[in-house]
C-alpha cells in the first residue's frame, strides 16, 4: 500500500507539536527584550529551528510543490507564536526557485494582514523570498516601490529588506538606493534601521558611491540610518561622516 501523502494540515499539526516540545519559557522571556512590540515566543534556539525545518523538508521534498508550501505557510502564519510562523516561512522559502510571479501578491497580502507583525519575521521572509522574486521577475522592482508608501510599517520595512541580498549586484544598486532615499523622511525606527542596513550592504558593492550619497543627503538622513550605514567604514572615516552630515 502506498503511504498517504503528507498534507499541509498534517505537517502543520506535527510541526506545532514538535515546536511545543522544544519550547523554553526562559528563552521566550529573553527573546522579548529585542522587540518594542509584544511578540509571543515559545523560546526555541535558532539551530533547533533550522534542524526541524531540514527534517520536515526532507519528508515532503519528493511530494510537494509551491502550492502545498504556500498552504502550509498560511496555516503556520495563522498561529500567534513567532517560531511557528517562522517555521512556515522557512519551509515556504525552500521553493523560491519555483515561485510564480503571483507569489509577490500573496506575500503582499500576508504583510497587509499583519501575518508578519515583527521585524524578525519580515527579515526572515523578504531577503530570500521577495528577493528571489525580484531577481526572477525584474519588472517587480517597479511594483515594490509602491510598498514604500504604505501606511503599514511591515510593508514599508519589506520594501527595504527585500533588496538586502540584491544590493551586492550592480544591476540592482540603483533600485536599492532609490528605495532608501524614499524612506529618509520616515520617523519609524524600524524603517530607519532597515534603511541603514541596506545602505551598509550596498556599500559592499561600491563604498565610494555610498560615501557620496551620505555626503550629498547628509542632514536629511536620520542619524539612526546613518550610523548603521557607516559601520564598515574605518573609524576615522565614520567620525568624519558623522560630523560632516550633521544638521546645521
Task: Identify the quaternary structure here.
Answer: single chain
**What is the helical fraction, as a range of percent?**
55-70%
What would CATH call the class of the largest domain?
Mainly Alpha
* Secondary-structure element series: HHHHHHHHHHHHHH
Class based on secondary structure composition and strand pairing = mainly alpha
Low-confidence stretches: none
How many domains in all?
2
How does the overall form come out from the CA principal axes? Answer: globular
Q: How far apart are the termini?
A: 77 Å
Q: What would you report as the Rg, rounded to the nearest angstrom?
A: 20 Å
- Per DSSP, the total helix count is 14
Mean pLDDT: 94
CATH topology name of the largest domain: Leucine-rich Repeat Variant
Could you tell me the number of beta strands?
0
Second-tier CATH architecture of the largest domain = Alpha Horseshoe
Q: Strand portion, in percent?
A: under 5%
Largest sheet: none
Amino acid at each position: 500500500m502506498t503511504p498517504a501523502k503528507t498534507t499541509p494540515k498534517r505537517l502543520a499539526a506535527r510541526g506545532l507539536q514538535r515546536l511545543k516540545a522544544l519550547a523554553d519559557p526562559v528563552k521566550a522571556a529573553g527573546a522579548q527584550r529585542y522587540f518594542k512590540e509584544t511578540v509571543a515566543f515559545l523560546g526555541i534556539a535558532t539551530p533547533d529551528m533550522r534542524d526541524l525545518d531540514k527534517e520536515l523538508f526532507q519528508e515532503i521534498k519528493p511530494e510537494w510543490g509551491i502550492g502545498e508550501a504556500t498552504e502550509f505557510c498560511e496555516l503556520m502564519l495563522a498561529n500567534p507564536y513567532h517560531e511557528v510562523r517562522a517555521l512556515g516561512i522557512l519551509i515556504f522559502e525552500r521553493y523560491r526557485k519555483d515561485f510564480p510571479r503571483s507569489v509577490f501578491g500573496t506575500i503582499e497580502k500576508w504583510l497587509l494582514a499583519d501575518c508578519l507583525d515583527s521585524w524578525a519575521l519580515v527579515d526572515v521572509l523578504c531577503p530570500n523570498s521577495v528577493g528571489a522574486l525580484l531577481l526572477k521577475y525584474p519588472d517587480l522592482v517597479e511594483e515594490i516601490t509602491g510598498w514604500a508608501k504604505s501606511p503599514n510599517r511591515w510593508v514599508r520595512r519589506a520594501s527595504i529588506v527585500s533588496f538586502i541580498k540584491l544590493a551586492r549586484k550592480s544591476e540592482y544598486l540603483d533600485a536599492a538606493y532609490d528605495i532608501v532615499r524614499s524612506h529618509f523622511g520616515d520617523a519609524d525606527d524600524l524603517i530607519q534601521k532597515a534603511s541603514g542596513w541596506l545602505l551598509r550592504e550596498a556599500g559592499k558593492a561600491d563604498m565610494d558611491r555610498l560615501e557620496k550619497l551620505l555626503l550629498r543627503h547628509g542632514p536629511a538622513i536620520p542619524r539612526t540610518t546613518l550610523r548603521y550605514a557607516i559601520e564598515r567604514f574605518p573609524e576615522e572615516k565614520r567620525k568624519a561622516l558623522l560630523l560632516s552630515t550633521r544638521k546645521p
